[in-house]
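Appendix B. Chain record.
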Amino acid sequence: MSKARQAAIKKKRQKLEAEQKVLKARVTYLQNVSCKHPDVAKKPGSNAGNYDPAADYYWVDCNCPDCGKRWTEDQ
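C-alpha coordinates predicted for this chain:
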Protein backbone atom coordinates (compact mmCIF):
# COMPACT_ATOMS: atom_id res chain seq x y z
CA MET A 1 0.00 0.00 0.00
CA SER A 2 1.36 3.41 -0.92
CA LYS A 3 2.17 6.09 1.63
CA ALA A 4 -0.40 8.39 0.02
CA ARG A 5 -3.12 5.75 0.40
CA GLN A 6 -2.16 5.15 4.04
CA ALA A 7 -2.26 8.90 4.73
CA ALA A 8 -5.70 9.20 3.11
CA ILE A 9 -7.05 6.34 5.22
CA LYS A 10 -5.60 7.85 8.40
CA LYS A 11 -7.09 11.26 7.57
CA LYS A 12 -10.52 9.74 6.89
CA ARG A 13 -10.38 7.76 10.15
CA GLN A 14 -9.49 10.88 12.12
CA LYS A 15 -12.37 12.78 10.52
CA LEU A 16 -14.83 10.01 11.35
CA GLU A 17 -13.56 9.80 14.94
CA ALA A 18 -14.03 13.58 15.33
CA GLU A 19 -17.60 13.31 14.01
CA GLN A 20 -18.22 10.36 16.32
CA LYS A 21 -17.03 12.42 19.30
CA VAL A 22 -19.49 15.21 18.45
CA LEU A 23 -22.38 12.75 18.08
CA LYS A 24 -21.48 11.04 21.36
CA ALA A 25 -21.60 14.42 23.12
CA ARG A 26 -25.02 15.12 21.61
CA VAL A 27 -26.38 11.75 22.76
CA THR A 28 -24.97 12.31 26.26
CA TYR A 29 -26.66 15.72 26.44
CA LEU A 30 -29.94 14.20 25.25
CA GLN A 31 -29.76 11.42 27.85
CA ASN A 32 -28.66 13.56 30.81
CA VAL A 33 -30.42 16.89 30.20
CA SER A 34 -33.25 16.63 27.69
CA CYS A 35 -34.86 13.30 28.59
CA LYS A 36 -36.72 13.00 31.89
CA HIS A 37 -37.04 9.19 31.49
CA PRO A 38 -40.85 9.04 31.95
CA ASP A 39 -41.19 5.41 30.86
CA VAL A 40 -38.05 3.98 32.47
CA ALA A 41 -38.07 0.20 32.82
CA LYS A 42 -36.71 -0.98 36.16
CA LYS A 43 -35.51 -4.50 36.90
CA PRO A 44 -34.42 -5.42 40.43
CA GLY A 45 -31.30 -7.51 40.94
CA SER A 46 -29.34 -8.96 43.83
CA ASN A 47 -26.57 -11.28 44.84
CA ALA A 48 -28.40 -12.36 48.02
CA GLY A 49 -27.90 -15.77 49.53
CA ASN A 50 -24.30 -15.33 50.53
CA TYR A 51 -22.94 -17.16 53.56
CA ASP A 52 -22.52 -13.75 55.20
CA PRO A 53 -25.79 -11.79 54.88
CA ALA A 54 -23.82 -8.56 55.32
CA ALA A 55 -22.31 -9.23 51.87
CA ASP A 56 -25.73 -9.30 50.17
CA TYR A 57 -26.19 -6.51 47.64
CA TYR A 58 -29.35 -5.21 46.00
CA TRP A 59 -29.73 -2.92 42.99
CA VAL A 60 -32.13 -1.86 40.23
CA ASP A 61 -31.14 -1.89 36.55
CA CYS A 62 -32.80 1.04 34.75
CA ASN A 63 -33.34 1.41 31.00
CA CYS A 64 -35.01 4.36 29.27
CA PRO A 65 -36.62 3.21 26.00
CA ASP A 66 -36.81 6.79 24.72
CA CYS A 67 -33.18 7.95 24.92
CA GLY A 68 -31.45 4.58 25.38
CA LYS A 69 -29.74 5.50 28.65
CA ARG A 70 -28.93 2.59 30.96
CA TRP A 71 -27.89 2.91 34.59
CA THR A 72 -27.92 1.12 37.92
CA GLU A 73 -29.34 2.36 41.21
CA ASP A 74 -28.25 0.93 44.55
CA GLN A 75 -30.94 -0.23 46.95
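Further analysis of this model is presented in Appendix C.
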